[in-house]
Amino acid sequence: GENVEQHPSTLSVQEGDSAVIKCTYSDSASNYFPWYKQELGKRPQLIIDIRSNVGEKKDQRIAVTLNKTAKHFSLHITETQPEDSAVYFCAASSDGNQFYFGTGTSLTVIP
Amino acid sequence: GAVVSQHPSRVICKSGTSVKIECRSLDFQATTMFWYRQFPKKSLMLMATSNEGSKATYEQGVEKDKFLINHASLTLSTLTVTSAHPEDSSFYICSAYKGIYEQYFGPGTRLTVT
């Protein structure tokens, strides 16, 4: 089955700086890579996703890059704000149905 | 987006009792729902795939007699933790599959077994 690894597990940045979270996957059949943000005690919310036919996708301050050859993808948050503080999960799926999640990154943005 | 609810949001039960958690898709029909377990500061672990009208598919290492899943309608899946023990205490989250690449999470249920 798919194995998704995520780094770092914790990340602290100063407000206004950028944050980068990286994930690797093992199944070359995976073709869909969503990122979720989960605030404490709440449900994960999809923030951005990318499919294997593109290498980069951007939505305002959030961007995701994908390197299919190396089987890794990254989340980039620019101009971080305190409200960006949360746990972020990457995931991979080969059929758009079953998702396999990374281990999560706890991001803290220091005002 | 779409709305998925879970009930209850929190439950405390005594060791040896059974607890049922409901997952509902409120504004769409979901032939497939998923159940996840999340430990503190840990990732979401897929427990099982719940298919309407058929048996659930369990991930390796998940006891199907311990975690009973019933997907009796297109909008409701239930997870019953049978003979609960303290080690079953966790945050359980469901998600509902609206379409390919579209999965919406419920708010989660905090289970505490005393």
Q: Can you offer a commentary on this structure?
A:
Chain A has 111 residues and is mostly beta strands. In chain A, 0% of the residues lie in helices and 55% in strands. In chain A, the strands form 2 sheets. In chain A, strands 2, 4, 5, 9, 10 and 11 form a 6-stranded mixed beta sheet that branches. In chain A, strands 1-3-8-7-6 form a 5-stranded antiparallel beta sheet, with no helix packed on it. The radius of gyration of chain A is 13 Å and the shape is globular. Chain B has 114 residues and is an all-beta fold. Helix content of chain B is 0%, strand content 56%. The mean pLDDT of chain B is 92. Chain A binds chain B through residues 6, 32, 34, 41-45, 49, 51, 87, 89, 93, 95-104, 106, and chain B through 4, 32, 34, 41-46, 49, 93, 97, 100-103, 105-108, 110.
Which properties best describe this structure?
heterodimer; A: 111 residues; mainly beta; six-stranded mixed β-sheet; five-stranded antiparallel β-sheet; globular; B: 114 residues; seven-stranded mixed β-sheet; four-stranded antiparallel β-sheet; 11 strands; 0% helix; 56% strand
